[in-house]
């Protein structure tokens, strides 16, 4: 009974990526996830460059453990992902920056002044993703770390 209750437990103060882990946990337990066209939660976006930069870093840091952690922490799994990240990092930064900026600039061409900040944030994300892939155990979001300890 406790195991089933833990599957459905949702942490209100999730760190980046933990919503993905929560959805995966529900799916593995056989649950179906349905999305509402009208959100029933309040979500506050980050305000200020420092808060956005911190969020981007944590999102990158938690990327490997949340997306691929179930495959294991072996270097046989992580090394190919790390190599692909290193090779693809410049393209990832440029493409994700373009996707972010294209609608802004289309709406108001003066928004191009934000390009250096967006590029910096995307580089920060990629660096954090590399760090999280190299040091998986320390890059786990807190709730995932706590769940691992409680299972041990």
Summarize the structure.
With 152 residues, the chain is mainly α. The protein has helices at residues 2-8, 18-28, 49-61, 63-68, 75-107, 115-134, 136-139, 142-151.
Please outline the helices and strands.
Layout: H1 2-8, H2 18-28, H3 49-61, H4 63-68, H5 75-107, H6 115-134, H7 136-139, H8 142-151
Folded structure, characterized:
- By secondary structure, this protein is mainly alpha-helical.
- The protein has one domain.
- It is built from eight helices and no strands.
- The longest helix is centred in the middle third of the chain and has 33 residues.
- The protein is globular and about 50 Å long.
- The mean pLDDT is 80.
Over all CA atoms, what is the radius of gyration?
18 Å
Percentage of residues in strands: under 5%
Q: Give me the secondary-structure category.
A: mainly alpha
Low-pLDDT runs of 5+ residues are none
Report on the biggest sheet.
none
Shape field: globular
- The strand count comes to 0
Mean pLDDT over the residues: 80
How far do the termini sit from each other? Answer: 18 Å
Number of H- or I-type helical stretches? 8
Helix content: 55-70%
Q: Any idea how many domains?
A: 1
H-E order: HHHHHHHH
């Amino acid at each position: 009974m406790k195991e089933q209750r833990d599957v459905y437990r949702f942490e209100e103060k999730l760190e980046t990526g933990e919503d993905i882990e929560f959805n995966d946990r529900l799916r593995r337990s056989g649950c179906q996830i349905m999305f509402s066209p009208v959100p029933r939660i309040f979500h506050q976006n980050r305000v200020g460059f420092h808060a956005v930069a911190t969020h981007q870093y944590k999102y990158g840091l938690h990327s490997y453990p949340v997306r691929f952690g179930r495959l294991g922490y072996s270097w046989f799994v992580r090394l190919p992902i790390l190599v692909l990240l290193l090779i693809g990092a410049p393209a990832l930064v440029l493409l994700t920056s373009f996707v972010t900026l294209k609608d802004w600039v289309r709406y108001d061409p003066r928004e191009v002044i934000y390009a250096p900040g967006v590029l910096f944030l995307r580089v920060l994300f990629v660096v954090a993703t590399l760090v999280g892939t190299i040091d998986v155990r320390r890059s786990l979001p807190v709730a995932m770390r706590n769940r691992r300890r409680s299972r041990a």
